[in-house]
Amino acid sequence: MSEQKFLTLDISGIEPEAGAPAPERIISGAPVFRTWNAEERDGGLYAGVWESTPGKWRIEYDEWEYCRILSGVSVITGEGGEARTVRAGDSFILRPGFRGSWEVLETTRKEYVIRL
What we know:
It holds the Pfam family Cupin_3. Helix content is 0%, strand content 61%. The chain is mainly β.
């Protein structure tokens, strides 16, 4: 069977992976993650949907990530203190070296593409 060259980002039928920030990274709350990986390629390319319940944790990006918020509200704050509120319809890129915190105010769901 040949590989499909056009793939829709449809997570129905994909069992989500459960997760959470490492305990030492949590600043407040008890956030719980669900991740639906729709695409995973050799060389470190990933695409899918991620969701988190409310809470705040420290983030450190070694990878490049494109995000598009589908629902919810989060605040992403860089080390320098610049806070950005993201909500449904917002798209952004986090580059390697970004450090700061991610705070989920309302359960947030995003589409992502990650390149290691």
